[in-house]
Amino acid sequence: EQIIIATNNAGKLCEFQKLFAPKHIKVTSLKDYPQLGKIAETGMTFEENATLKASAVSKQTNIPVLADDSGLEVDALNGRPGIFSARYAGDHDDAANNAKLLSELAGIPLEKRTATFHTTLVLMKPDESKLVVNGELRGQILAVPRGNNGFGYDPLFLVPEKQKSLAEMTSEEKNEISHRGRASQKLLKVFDEWW
Ligand code: ITT
């Protein structure tokens, strides 16, 4: 059995490989299918964008697909960058995105820098039937990055209960509590029945 993770993001793929390891399903990703074209994320919600990615890939490959659309919703920025998190400061440039986030929040104290990390997962079969799950993690945006693990906004995202940024956690620690980890746990619970 096989599943394609419809992502070009190496950090996401790495987390899914660990989360799916107990299932003994072969996990591939878009880098194994270089012939597939770029997918335009034109939706206005996480679910729309995850569905666009999943259906584009499952139609062309005839293999079940898991797509992840995620984003960071910062309360002091009225929920921005949200679905635009990957393109906040340009095109998929983590360093530029983090710099922009820091400058938008300059001068705001930590207790007012609350934020939610959101993930929507869409698991889709080639007949386009789909399973949708969501996961969220609340935290605070640091003024100075901490840690070297993870990817994307992880060095700026403090998990108050742990007093650690996501980039200071191992992938196991992060997967246990993260938006993506929580959504994946929900998915894995119903996976066998749905599959
Ligand atoms: P794919 O669409 O190919 O999956 P992407 O990076 O474009 O990859 P999204 O459209 O879902 O993914 O954008 C999510 C953005 O949020 C992107 O900038 C990520 O780096 C960031 N992000 C998502 N999950 C994250 C996590 O667990 N930790 C830190 N940053 C994360």
TrEMBL record:
It catalyses: dITP + H2O = dIMP + diphosphate + H(+); ITP + H2O = IMP + diphosphate + H(+); XTP + H2O = XMP + diphosphate + H(+). Substrate binds at T7, N8, N9, A10, G11, K12, S70, F151, G152, Y153, D154, K174, H179, R180. It is an enzyme of class 3 (hydrolase). The keyword Metal-binding applies. GO terms for cellular component: cytosol. GO terms for molecular function: dITP diphosphatase activity; ITP diphosphatase activity; metal ion binding; nucleotide binding; ribonucleoside triphosphate phosphatase activity; XTP diphosphatase activity. Mg(2+) binds at D69. Its cofactor is Mg(2+). The active site is at D69 (proton acceptor). Its EC number is 3.6.1.66. Binds 1 Mg(2+) ion per subunit. It comes from the Bacteria. One of its GO terms (biological process) is purine nucleoside triphosphate catabolic process. Pfam families: Ham1p_like. InterPro entries: dITP/XTP_pyrophosphatase, ITPase-like_fam, RdgB/HAM1. Keywords: Hydrolase, Magnesium, Metal-binding, Nucleotide metabolism, Nucleotide-binding. Pyrophosphatase that catalyzes the hydrolysis of nucleoside triphosphates to their monophosphate derivatives, with a high preference for the non-canonical purine nucleotides XTP (xanthosine triphosphate), dITP (deoxyinosine triphosphate) and ITP. Seems to function as a house-cleaning enzyme that removes non-canonical purine nucleotides from the nucleotide pool, thus preventing their incorporation into DNA/RNA and avoiding chromosomal lesions. Belongs to the HAM1 NTPase family. Homodimer. PANTHER family: INOSINE TRIPHOSPHATE PYROPHOSPHATASE (PTHR11067:SF9), INOSINE TRIPHOSPHATE PYROPHOSPHATASE/HAM1 PROTEIN (PTHR11067). This is dITP/XTP pyrophosphatase. The lineage of its organism: Bacteria, Bacillati, Bacillota, Bacilli, Lactobacillales.
